[in-house]
Amino acid sequence: xxxxxxxxxxxxxxxxxxxxxxYSRHSQNHVENISMEICTIMTRLGYGEEMRRWRVEKYSExxxxxxxxxxxxxxxxxxxxxxxxTCIFESDWDMFHVVKGVLCxxxxxxxxxxxxxxxxxxxxxxxxxxxxxxxxxxxxxxxFIQITNSLCDNGYGAGLLSSSLFLDECSEKxxxxxxxxxxxxxxxxxxxxxxxxxxxxxxxxRCHCPSFLQRWAARTRHWPSPGIVKEVVSFxxxxxxxxxxxxxxxxxEWRMCFNPGETVLVNNLNSxxxxxxxxxxxxxxxxxxxxxxxxxxxxxxxxxxxxxxxNPQHNFYKRSFLYWLHDGxxxxxxxxxxxxLSYYMIPERNLMAASGLQDKQQSKWVADITDMMDEGPxxxxxxxxxxxxxxxxxxxxxxxxxxxxxxxxxxxxxxxRQCSDEHNAILQEIKRRKVEIMMEVAQRxxxxxxxxxxxxxxxxxxxx
Length: 464
Known about the structure:
The protein has helices at 6-12, 19-23, 28-47, 49-66, 79-82, 145-148, 163-173, 210-217, 226-234, 259-267, 271-288, 297-309, 321-338, 359-375, 384-391, 394-420, 424-447, 455-462, and strands spanning 73-78, 93-105, 119-124, 131-138, 151-153, 159-161, 180-181, 189-193, 197-208, 237-240, 253-257. The chain is α+β, with helices and mostly antiparallel strands. It has 3 domains: 6-46 and 269-387, Poly(a)-polymerase, middle domain; 55-259, Beta Polymerase, domain 2; 392-462. Helix 13 runs antiparallel to helix 14 (359-375).
C-alpha cells in the first residue's frame, strides 16, 4: 500500500498506538519530522524501497540459477538477502540446501498420492511445538547416502532419521577447498570465502504439512491480503536438522520452518515496516550485542510480522516510523522480560524458550531497552551508521550513497551473469566500471589523508 502524503499522515497519527507516550515529551510535528528524516537516511544507506526491490529480483534470479546445479540439492537463498534488506557482504548469506528425492509428511497424508520414486518419512509431531521426529515410511528408488548413514533403529524395528547425524553427514558433503568451515551452529554449517563472504548453509528436507499452514491461513488478520496468504501456503514447509534445545532427544528431532513463505511475507511489507525491521536489527546488533544468540534477528522478524498482522496497513507510513520503532522495542522488551514470543507461523512454539538468557543479562537488556524507549527520537543516535549519516556533510553523504549502491548493483549483476555464462562483453564492461569506481574512491581517500591498501579492500568495505 502506498504511503500517505502530509495531510493524510497527520490525520492518521491519532490512530497509531503508542503515539501519546512519545508526544508527552516531544511535539507531534517534531517526532513526525524526525521520522521523515530517518526514512530518508535509511534510503541513502541502501534500505530504500527501490534498492530493496532490485535486490529481491537479483537474489531470486541467483536462486533460480543455482537450483539445478547440484544433483543432490536444490539451493535457495533465504534470510535478509532474499528479503533485499542487506548489502552483499553486510551479513551472512543464508543458503538452504534442500535434499532432492525426499518428502516428509504429516500423519494424515495418504501415501498413494505421493510418487513412488520419493523417499518418504512420516512426521511424529508429539514433541515440542514446531518440531517433529521422522519415521521411515517408504524408501524411494534411489537414496541419498547421507540419509542412509543417518538412519537409526527406534527400538521397535522402524527407521528413525537422526537430525544430528544428518547434519554431520552434510557437513562433510559441504566441505570445499575455497571455503573455510566453522563450528556448526544450530542447523547451519557456517563458512567463509576469502575472509569476507560469510555463508550459513542449512541442509533441509521438503515437508508437506497442510494442517499447520491451514491453521495459519485461517487466522483473523489485518495483513497480509488473501492472495499473499494463498501464495505463502503454496510454498509449503521444510525441516531443518535441529531439535528443541531443552529436549533430551534433540539429536533425533527436526524443526519446521517456512523460509520461502516468510520471504514472501517480508517482501510484502511496505517501506516503513521494512525500515523499522532493519533498525530494530541494528539496535539488537549494535546496542544489545548478544554473544550467544540469546536473542536473534529472527526474533526481530517475528515481532515485525506480528506487528503487521495485528494493525491496519494504512497506519504504517513514513511519519509514523518512530511510533512503530517504539512499539517494536516494547515488544522486544516484553519478550526478553517474560521469555515468551510466539512463533508467527506456529504460535504454540515459543521462540524465547531455552534461549539461555541469564537473569543478569535479562535485567540489563530490559533496563537498556527501557532507557532507549525513554530517549524517544534520540535513540537513533546510539547506532553508529545512523549517527555518522546524521553528522555527515550532505555532499559527501550523497556521493558515497550513490557510489555504494552503484557498486552493489554492479557486483550483483556480475554474479548473475557469471552464473549464466553469457554476456561476456557486458561482464567486461561491469568489471571495468567497478575498477573505475574503486579508483575514484581510492583517490578521494588519499586526498583526505586515508591509507589505501588495495582495490579489493575498498570494494569489501563499501559493500559491507
